[in-house]
Design a protein that fits this description.
Length: 462
């Protein structure tokens, strides 16, 4: 009897240990931003932001290594800067899409985040410069140039701003494998890939669609350009267009089954393209599927974040290990009637053409772990091959609010500021009628998040 009890206790203990071991271990941090890295602000709502905006860092992430004091060090990058939706701009009888830039001179930046002693703190910050060492901005590129999203920049008083032909909406960051003082970043405007001196922030080379990159990348949806970037051991650069491409101007009806990944070999200049199959059935619309970031595990294997809202409206953020080893290079491939592959609505139609999709294996959905932000924008893997570092950005610690909204013909309140128009005098109108509606900036006090998620087994064992 005694032996039986001992055996039972050992078995029970082993079972409990196995269950516990199957649960990820999570360390959660708010990324602390020292005062010297706050974003200066002197606009209309200065009193609401006396110290400026909290820097939004975490749009992309990569692991640097351990410091002498044991701190884990990461590079994190911001996006284009404090921005918000704004009324459509009306000029010479034309209606133009807009975006509000509260700090028009903000320069997209990257810096080192140190995780040590229970804190995650931004310890350095470097702004991006063009090849002549002139700081760039995050304002849109002029219409007619490669990278234009068709948006006109407005300030927080809804006054038209200048475009920036060097503007970047940065989203990903990775370290060069041959020179640790060089980084690679990606952008949503062009979409562009850029090679950068990490000591100065100077852009050494920018790869553009229609030149060094395939022209089809310009069919990305506005603000859905390159969202993630990774560098393989042999120094090839993989980047992901965030969502399915709008190849025919019918993106709202698109049933495209894949999102394009681009693999650049900087040594030869060659680019290959692969079809990443998003989980079409999980989304109400194909256009809703998004990619968050990439991390290279080998020459062919990568960690990829997929995110978006389910058909039922619930957010999903699954992480996958993907493999491009057997995937088909779809560069230049068209349908039998000469259309782009995104116009095909069934995976089988592509498979019948001999196309092999990127393979994907799910690791975890961090929404199931209690992740609260709607987005996960950066991922890096620690040397143990089990611990994922994951970041969100904080949208610079503010949001916008529509003041004095009107009601539509059905009596419903018009809450979307993009449903209104504004002219050169600053007058806001709704369906041609001047209104007293305004858009104001409101603090959220939100911080960028960093999680260290230690999985029960190595990522390549899933």
């Amino acid at each position: 009897m005694f032996r039986f009890l001992i055996a039972f206790i050992i078995t029970l203990s082993t079972s409990v240990s196995s269950v516990l071991a199957a649960e990820p271990v999570i360390q959660k941090f708010d990324i602390e931003i020292p005062k010297e890295f706050m974003v200066p602000y002197s606009g209309v709502y200065t009193k609401r932001f006396p110290q400026g905006f909290t820097l939004g860092i975490g749009s992309g992430l990569c692991y640097v290594g351990k410091a002498a004091d044991g701190a884990r060090v990461f590079y994190a990058i911001s996006d284009r800067g404090p921005n918000a939706d704004a009324p459509t701009y009306e000029e010479s009888g034309k209606k133009i899409k807009t975006k509000m830039f509260a700090t028009p001179q903000y320069t997209p930046s990257f810096g080192a985040v140190r995780v040590h002693d229970g804190k995650a703190v931004l310890s350095s910050l470097i702004s991006l410069k063009n090849e002549n060492m002139v700081p760039i901005s995050g304002r849109p590129i002029p219409q007619g140039l490669v990278g234009s999203t068709g948006e006109t920049p407005l300030d927080d008083s809804l006054t038209k701003l200048d475009f920036d032909s060097d503007g970047l909406d940065t989203e990903g960051i990775a370290i060069d494998r041959q020179n640790k003082h060089t980084i690679w970043i990606c952008d949503e405007y062009g979409p562009f890939i850029a090679k950068v001196d990490s000591n100065t922030g100077r852009i050494l080379k920018k790869y553009a669609p229609g030149k060094e990159l395939p022209a089809i990348a310009t069919s990305r949806q506005p603000n859905r350009g390159f969202e993630g970037i990774a560098v393989t051991p042999s120094n090839k650069v993989l980047t992901a267009i965030q969502s399915v491409c709008d190849v025919d101007g019918k993106i709202k009806k698109s049933k495209a089954t894949f999102i394009r990944l681009l693999l650049l070999d900087p040594e030869t200049g060659t680019v290959k393209q692969y079809a990443y199959p998003h989980n079409r059935d999980d989304y109400k619309h194909s256009r809703d599927a998004k990619i968050g970031d990439l991390h290279a595990l080998s020459e062919t294997q990568f960690i990829l974040i997929e995110r978006g809202k389910n058909a039922d409206g619930k957010t999903r953020i699954p992480f996958y290990v993907i493999d491009i080893a057997d995937a088909t290079d779809i560069s230049g491939m068209k349908t039998s009637d000469g259309k782009e592959l995104e116009t095909l609505h069934k995976k089988k139609a592509l498979e019948d053409m001999g196309i092999h999709f990127v393979k994907k294996t799910k690791i975890v959905d961090i929404k199931d772990l209690g992740w609260k932000p709607g987005k996960a924008e950066g991922v890096a893997l620690l040397p143990d091959k089990r611990t994922l570092a994951i970041t969100s950005d904080n949208d610079f610690g503010f949001t916008y609010k529509v003041i004095n909204p009107v009601k539509d013909d059905n009596g419903k309140t018009v809450k979307k500021i993009t449903a209104y128009t504004v002219d050169s005098t600053g007058q806001v109108s709704y369906k041609g009628t001047p209104v007293d509606t305004k858009v104001e900036l409101v603090p959220t006090q939100a911080a960028s998040k960093l999680w260290l998620v230690t999985l029960p087994k190595k990522v390549d064992e899933y």
